[in-house]
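Re: flavin-adenine dinucleotide structure - here you go.
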Amino acid sequence: MLDHDVIIVGGGLAGSRAALEIAGLLPGINVGLIAKTHPIRSHSVAAQGGIAATLKNVDTQDSWESHAFDTVKGSDYLADQDAVAILTQEAPEVVFDLEHRGVLFSRLPDGRIAQRAFGGHSHNRTCYAADKTGHAILHELISNLMACGVTIYDEWYVMRLILEDNQAKGVVMYHLLDGKVEVVRAKSVLFATGGYGRVFNTTSNDYASTGDGLAMTARAGLPLEDMEFVQFHPTGLYPVGVLISEAVRGEGAHLINSDGNRFMHHYAPSRMELAPRDITSRAIAIEIGKGRGIFPNGSPGGPFVYLDLRHMGREKIMSRIPFCWEEAHRLVGIDASIQPIPVRPTVHYSMGGIPVNTHGQVRRNSQELVDGFFAAGEAACVSVHGANRLGSNSLLECVVFGRRTGTAIASSVITRKLPDLDEAHYLKEAHHQIQSLLDQRGQYRIAEIRQAYQDCMTAFCGVFRSSALMEEGLIQLRQIQSRYGQIRLDDQGSCWNTELIEALELQNLMVVGELILFSALNRKESRGSHAREDFPERDDNNFLNHTLAFYSSARIEISLMPVVISMFQPQARQY
Ligand SMILES: Cc1cc2nc3c(=O)[nH]c(=O)nc-3n(C[C@H](O)[C@H](O)[C@H](O)COP(=O)(O)OP(=O)(O)OC[C@H]3O[C@@H](n4cnc5c(N)ncnc54)[C@H](O)[C@@H]3O)c2cc1C
């Protein structure tokens, strides 16, 4: 058995920022960080557009209160406003801290950090490193981490959270290199395992975004919060779904339908292309639905609209958003300085997740906390994004709440003891789980079931939803799930058995997908990213609450948790 004072699962922005905080506050502490990828391949590395903070370098009228208001309004009033106040007040400090740790932000001519416009933000407050912001931040955090004695277990896959008597005691992990299974015991456990985009068939997320941390938490009997709120990013590159950052619209690109019109004028006249993502994604879906989409040959009625950068000029494109130009060029052969880019909404971000308080402590229910268990970043729901996240607020959340969670762990871990646990029991269970998967001799390959599942989630729980659609979706989902018992793995080896990992990940996708669909069925209103055709209005009287969904293979139970409203009363949301 491996022992650590603290074990962190996840080496993205949230996990690495928390690890740095703990190691900085308690030099010599024994921290282990586990990641199924190498940490610098965590999905944070793909973040493009930037990180929001009211530095006032470009816009002197900006304030944290304005950032907080934009965030709450963007969330369709479902965000917890105490958490939003922390997010927006601490933002400038964490960005300067990143800079002092070595992050190379893009600059204004006078040398200060540059800031750009972003959707739903009323001021130019997004700090950036061209369109490679996640890359710039993550690489610095990980090289800082290497220098401070944290043990990194890269390419170890965590299979299970060990939770006994309402206390997190450790995890069970599998080494991709040689198939070894280890039990890791710790005084505190932090999950920073990122999102679940791969539940759907078209996503901007990487292959590793399979919601593992969420599924492990749900299987341990703990709730997941607000799972119905799935963010569709308006500008996924057609047909592949990878992201064309909002920074492109922040720098001035237009959305155009088959008539050649800038249609956002009808949906958000004051913000146009820089409306929040839920509104812009719905607008694109409506335009396509009404036959004003475009086909690859340029004729009307097709499956995408155009993102038009041509008026911006080659020099601006290449200096401010070179990576987006490169993506369109490499993946679909478009030169965006002379051709418009085909785009449509793509699944991008998980607003919901593991419920935590503002110190990252995981909630057992609306009143109680779990001892020694923390979560941060996209896997967590603190809830600063409510029903719809604003662009450039996620990197911020990872850094602000990664740091705060690190502080909370550091101050609690010194008085804690290593827990007792039965290592042999957990090893036997993990070996049994692996061997029974390897022994299955069914007729289905994993990819077939995964594709069917992703197609089902996309068809029945997409941008627009209704009871009839989702009830049918739930029936089909369960039929697909029942085929899991008839899978077959061709790779029987223990060295780099990615097929086995995909089988384990598919189990997680299935838990997460069912929780999304069930939570969405339960919320009979339209709010933020959750658009119900049968309940088109927001209903504050009945649904100004967070959803807590408890999973069991037999049934899912839903309970509600109040929203913290401390600054801004809910109003009609218009842009
Ligand atoms: C293409 C793209 C562009 C984006 N651009 C922006 C932007 O400009 N601004 C912004 O604010 N937000 C942006 N976002 C969102 C933002 O990047 C993410 O929400 C954020 O980086 C998530 O960080 P994280 O630390 O929570 O998780 P991640 O960076 O996803 O890290 C998760 C970690 O958990 C590990 N892990 C997961 N499961 C297991 C397991 N079972 N065992 C072991 N390890 C595991 C992974 O290996 C990884 O190390 C973007 C998202 C995408 C997809």
